[in-house]
Design a protein that fits this description.
mainly alpha, two-stranded antiparallel ribbon, 7 helices, flat
């Protein structure tokens, strides 16, 4: 990825168009970072040589825990949330929603530890880490959408936006999860 990120602005500079150079380069690089590099860490789990478990089970664990966190943050926020975290970026995210969703999904991670090479306690803390990164990923992607003046990343799923709207939390959680597994459990 580093060579690709170096090559793209070089190519743009060689073409000789300096107008909005940094803005164009940044948009292209962030799009590749999110849509290719970050998301590619999910199927990369299949390539790991694990001491216990399989890459497919790790993928299932990651997706279930992070997506559950998203749903549970929404539920906790609707039930008990009042104080907004970042109202100008993501008006529906609340402190109680964040805390309740992340903790609930982390408990789910501990319950699903049998899919992983982690014990129940390790799965809880890894779930906590990926759920927090998932929340931050959703916040960053919302900030990008606000900056671009778009509501959804597409209209593929009626009422839910596009695929990137469903995967925004996985974009930030997947690389962290992959590297935790790669360096401590493979």
């Amino acid at each position: 990825p580093v060579y690709g990120f170096l090559f793209l602005p070089i190519l743009a500079a060689i073409c000789g168009d300096a107008a909005y150079f940094l803005e164009r380069s940044t948009k292209i690089q962030w799009a590749l970072m999110i849509c290719v590099f970050c998301i590619s860490h999910i199927p990369a789990l299949l390539l790991l040589d694990l001491k216990q478990g399989s890459g497919m089970e790790l993928m299932l664990f990651l997706i279930l825990v992070v997506q559950s966190s998203d749903v549970l943050q929404y539920v906790w926020g609707k039930l008990l949330g009042k104080r907004k975290i970042a109202p100008s970026i993501s008006p529906s995210k609340t402190v109680v929603g964040f805390a309740g969703g992340v903790l609930s999904a982390s408990v789910l991670a501990a319950c699903l530890h049998h899919l992983t090479p982690f014990g129940a306690v390790g799965a809880f803390f890894i779930g906590l880490a990926v759920c927090m990164m998932g929340f931050l990923g959703g916040l960053v992607m919302s900030a990008i959408k606000r900056d671009l003046g778009v509501k959804d990343w597409g209209y593929m799923i009626s009422g839910h936006g596009g695929m990137l709207d469903r995967m925004d939390s996985l974009c930030f959680a997947a690389p962290i999860f992959f590297h935790i597994v790669r360096y401590f459990y493979a």
